[in-house]
């Protein structure tokens, strides 16, 4: 009973606490696109060209992910692995030294530039600038079975960056991601989002996204 009440309280908190996130996201996205238009134009020209020249494979990679409330959406990324990387393995987590990652892909991942197309998801409202990492439906079911409560991360929109992304790493254990994401959901505010965005910019500049825990 206590767990059910707690889950209900957290669900209500998730609905009440993130009412400001959509206007916040749109304001920041608009300002950044206007202020950094030359940079955006250069990135959207150089990155697709580099990916295509490496192996003549697809430039973009799309994947089903879980959004707020468990709604499934298609997430966009620049391809950082060899074509058809999961053809023989199915859904698996990528490791830091994963041999499927291409040379261009490794550069993109170190600066999180492979996730740049997710701005499309943010404009559409599938994602937020800050929030839990969007997880795959099949992997989310596995993690929920091992760590009950993992689906609490769906109380708010997934984010391009977040507490787990900044203070952890891509390969952090699901239970550790859940701990970070639960803390974020309970404490989220415009000021926390600004802090995490600024920290994310710094990590991108020093190319530490695939490095050690921060």
Strand content: 5-15%
**Largest sheet: number of strands, sense, barrel closure:** 2 strands, antiparallel
- Residue-averaged pLDDT: 84
Q: Into how many domains do the coordinates divide?
A: 1
| Structure annotation, total helices | 9
Q: Span between N and C termini?
A: 37 Å
Reading side by side through the largest sheet, how are the strands ordered?
Answer: 1-2
Query: Would you identify the regions where 5 or more consecutive residues have pLDDT less than 50?
Result: none
Count of extended strands = 4
What would the principal axes of the Cα set say about the shape?
A: globular
Order of helices and strands: HHHEEHHEHEHHH
Rg over alpha carbons = 17 Å
Tell me about this structure:
- With 214 residues, this protein is mainly α.
- It is built from nine helices and four strands.
- The protein has helices spanning 2-17, 21-35, 37-55, 103-110, 118-124, 137-146, 163-167, 174-187, 190-205, and strands spanning 60-66, 72-78, 128-130, 159-161.
- The protein is globular.
- The mean pLDDT is 84.
Give descriptors for this structure.
single chain, 214 residues, mainly alpha, two-stranded parallel ribbon, 9 helices, 51% helix
Summarize the structure.
This protein has helices at residues 2-17, 21-35, 37-55, 103-110, 118-124, 137-146, 163-167, 174-187, 190-205, and strands at 60-66, 72-78, 128-130, 159-161.
Lay out the secondary structure.
Blueprint: H1 2-17, H2 21-35, H3 37-55, E1 60-66, E2 72-78, H4 103-110, H5 118-124, E3 128-130, H6 137-146, E4 159-161, H7 163-167, H8 174-187, H9 190-205
Parallel strand pairs: 3-4
Antiparallel strand pairs: 1-2
Helix pairs in contact: 3-4
């Amino acid at each position: 009973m206590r767990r059910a009440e707690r889950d209900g309280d957290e669900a209500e908190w998730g609905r009440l606490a993130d009412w400001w996130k959509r206007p916040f996201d749109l304001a920041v996205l608009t300002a950044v696109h206007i202020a950094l238009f030359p940079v955006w134009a250069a990135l959207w020209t150089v990155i697709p060209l580099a990916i295509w020249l490496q192996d003549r494979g697809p430039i973009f990679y799309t994947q089903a992910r879980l959004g707020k409330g468990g709604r499934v959406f298609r997430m966009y990324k620049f391809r950082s692995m060899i074509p058809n990387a999961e053809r023989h393995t199915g859904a698996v987590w990528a490791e830091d030294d994963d041999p499927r990652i291409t040379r261009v892909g490794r550069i993109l991942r170190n600066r999180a530039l492979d996730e740049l197309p997710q701005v499309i998801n943010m404009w559409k409202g599938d994602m937020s600038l800050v929030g839990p990492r969007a997880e795959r439906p099949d992997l989310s079911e596995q993690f929920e079975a091992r760590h009950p409560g993992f689906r609490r991360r769906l109380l708010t929109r997934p984010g391009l960056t977040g507490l787990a992304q900044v203070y952890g790493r891509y390969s952090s254990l699901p239970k550790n991601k859940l701990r970070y994401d639960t803390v974020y959901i309970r404490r989220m505010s415009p000021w926390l989002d600004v802090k995490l965005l600024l920290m994310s910019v710094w990590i991108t500049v020093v190319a530490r996204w695939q490095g050690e825990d921060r």
